Amino acid sequence: MSWKDSRWTGVAVIVLLGLLWEVAGRAGWVHKLLFPPLSVILAKLFEIVASGEILQHLGVSLWRATLGYTLAATFAIALGIVMGYWRRAYDACEITIELLRAVPPPAVIPLAMVFLGIGDALKVFMIFFACSFPILVNTIDGVRSVEPVLIRTARTFGLSRLRIVWKVILPVAAPTIMTGLRIATAIALILTVISEMVGATSGIGYFILGSQRTLHIANMYAGMLVLALTGYAINRAFLYVDGYLMAWHKGLTRREQ
Amino acid sequence: MRRIPWSGLAVLAACLLAWEAWAYWRRDLAAYFPPASEVLVTLGQMLGSGELTGHVAATMKRFAEGYFLAAVLAVGAGLCLGLWRWLYNAFEPLIELLRPMPSPATIPIAILFLGIGDEMKVAVTIYACSWPILLNTLDGVRSVDRVLFATAATFRLSPWARFWKVVLPAASPQIVTGLRVSLAIALILVTTSEMVVSNDGLGYYVLESQRTFQMPQMYAAVVALGVIGYALNRLFLMIDGWVMAWHKGATRREN
């Protein structure tokens, strides 16, 4: 297999860039302040993890993110099922939701600050606000894609509305809803960082910005690394859960080899 | 003639009335919670006096620069990575590494390298917007039906003709999806970077109004941002409907 087709080419590229970073910092090609050598950053990373400092900030951030995300998922899926199933509900709510969705979430932060202060409530609300929309849109989409034939068949069997939702609509809409939930995990992390940069005294976003402002540059890079790893871990965790919950769907839609 | 969603407009009107009523009922919160009418009047005043124009222009300039540069760079990169397998293999792990990092986290590093001016905000916006466009373009190019390639080979199309007539049209729906997602992201990043460090722009204005307790102005600016976001989205949908009309006709569900 030539180097063109090998996976290791990409790994080599990363290693090369890492080496370049290290050498550039040490040889003085770049300003040492702006670009500490990779080894210094990694050492700093180890230091702040060992001291528990970064884990504290990260813990706070993840707590806010999880809370906001869960609230958003519960609310948005429920509303999405209602709006997807009943055309009237959709028509009634759509304009208001479209207008709210158009406002960039950061612009809402100062507004929310007025009512909620700069504590956890602010961050949780912002995450809830921003995550609701992708989940809602995808849920509506998923519910709408349920074939009317399936619903009619269920009615023929005498299923109540609630059972139809549980046994017919949710399973059919589930893959699309999962897509919305997956998008929302990335958004949750983004809003956590944003709200922590604009008004906070703790959290990983606050840590990274604070490190830059006090010129603890290695700390800043280390924080970003932690954030990237966290994002990666959350994504993998989600894919794992998705693979487990949606196994029936993946089996069903797998391409025949 | 599209049917007008009367119930939707009614609900919107009801929400605004509820806002108005609640603000009047809780007059004690007047400092924090101006009624909708006051906000709209203030917005009108600000537009008339030109107070808002400078900020809107600054924000829109950063948005436009960031978004269009990102579009050009990311579509180009996505096409290259999608078409040449070795390039994709070389850069894929790097992409997978950088991708999970939330884009606002690049703001401090951008401030460090580019200062606190427009370059920083545009750079951050370009970085953030590139991701959805890149990933969607990549996906679109790589998922072009192999049959189309075989057909192109049968017709002995040149590589350029194959790209222009087969790959690009086949990938364009995905590319457009990426461009649409980036629209919102661009506005978010411009607003955020203006809030973190700036002295003009709508994001800055919202935060500054809040800090100086000019509440109606703050609400008005938020409404302005919402209107801009909504308008950009409608504009995009309009252009999308026009450019991608062939695709919408081809994939429309039979009624």
Total tally of structural domains of chain B: 1
The CATH topology of chain B: MetI-like fold
What's the alpha carbon Rg of chain A, rounded to whole Å? 23 Å
Name the CATH class of chain B. Answer: Mainly Alpha
| Class derived from helix and strand content of chain A | mainly alpha
Q: What count of helical segments of chain A does DSSP give? A: 11
Summed over residues and divided by their number, the pLDDT of chain B gives a mean of 88
Morphology call of chain A: globular
Q: What is the tally of helical segments of chain B? A: 11
CATH superfamily label of chain A: MetI-like
Proportion of residues in β-strands of chain B:
under 5%
Could you say which overall geometry of chain B the principal axes of the C-alpha atoms support?
Answer: globular
CATH fold category name of chain A: MetI-like fold
Query: Averaged pLDDT of chain A, please?
Result: 88
The SS-based structural class of chain B is mainly alpha
- Strand tally of chain A is 0
Determine and state the CATH class of chain A: Mainly Alpha
H/E element string of chain B? HHHHHHHHHHH
What portion of residues of chain B is helical?
Answer: over 70%
- End-to-end separation of chain B: 18 Å
Helix coverage percent of chain A: over 70%
